[in-house]
TrEMBL record:
Region feature Disordered, mapped onto this chain: 90-125
Entry-linked SUPFAM superfamilies: Nucleic acid-binding proteins (SSF50249)
Protein name as annotated: Single-stranded DNA-binding protein
One GO MF term attached to the UniProt entry: DNA binding
Any Pfam family: SSB
Amino acid composition bias (Polar residues), ranges on this chain: 107-117
Keyword DNA-binding: yes
Keyword presence, DNA repair: no
Keywords from the UniProt entry: DNA-binding
Length: 125
C-alpha cells in the first residue's frame, strides 16, 4: 500500500528492549469528495508510522514534510483509561520518499538503501 501525506510531528527514534531501533512518526493524509448534495467534503486520516530499516532517516522526517510511504496498514483498538473505546491506524513503512528538493530526496533514498539515483530534473516531464 502507498500513502502520501505530511508529517504531523518530528520523527522520534526509540530503542526496543532487544536493542533494535525504530523510527516513529505520524502522517496526515488528506482526501476530498463531493456528497450527494454537491458539497465538497474534506477528510483527513492519520497514520502512526513505524520504520525499522534505518534510524538515520529520522533527522530528515520533520513536521510538515511531504512523504510518500510504501508498507502495510493495520488497525489497532483499545479501551482508554476512561473506559472509552478507541481505534487507530498503524503503517509499517518499508520504503519512504521525501517530496521536495531533489537533494533531500536523494539523501533519504541513500539513507534507506533504495532509489535509482534519478532526481526530479531527470524526469521527462
Amino acid at each position: 500500500m502507498n500513502i502520501i501525506g505530511r508529517l504531523t510531528r518530528d520523527a522520534e527514534v526509540r530503542t526496543t528492549s532487544q536493542d533494535k531501533q525504530v523510527v516513529n512518526f505520524s502522517v496526515a493524509v488528506g482526501d476530498s469528495y463531493r456528497n450527494k448534495q454537491g458539497e465538497r467534503i474534506e477528510q483527513t486520516t492519520y497514520f502512526d508510522c513505524a520504520y525499522w530499516l534505518s534510524a538515520n532517516v529520522a533527522r530528515l522526517l520533520t513536521k510538515g514534510t511531504l512523504v510518500e510511504l510504501t508498507g502495510r496498514a493495520s488497525v489497532r483498538a483499545w479501551i482508554s483509561k476512561d473506559g472509552e473505546a478507541k481505534a487507530g491506524l498503524n503503517f509499517h513503512t518499508s520504503n519512504s520518499k521525501l517530496h521536495g528538493s531533489s537533494k533531500r530526496t536523494e539523501t533519504v533514498q541513500a539513507t534507506t538503501g533504495t532509489g535509482n539515483n534519478k532526481t526530479e530534473e531527470d524526469l521527462p516531464f
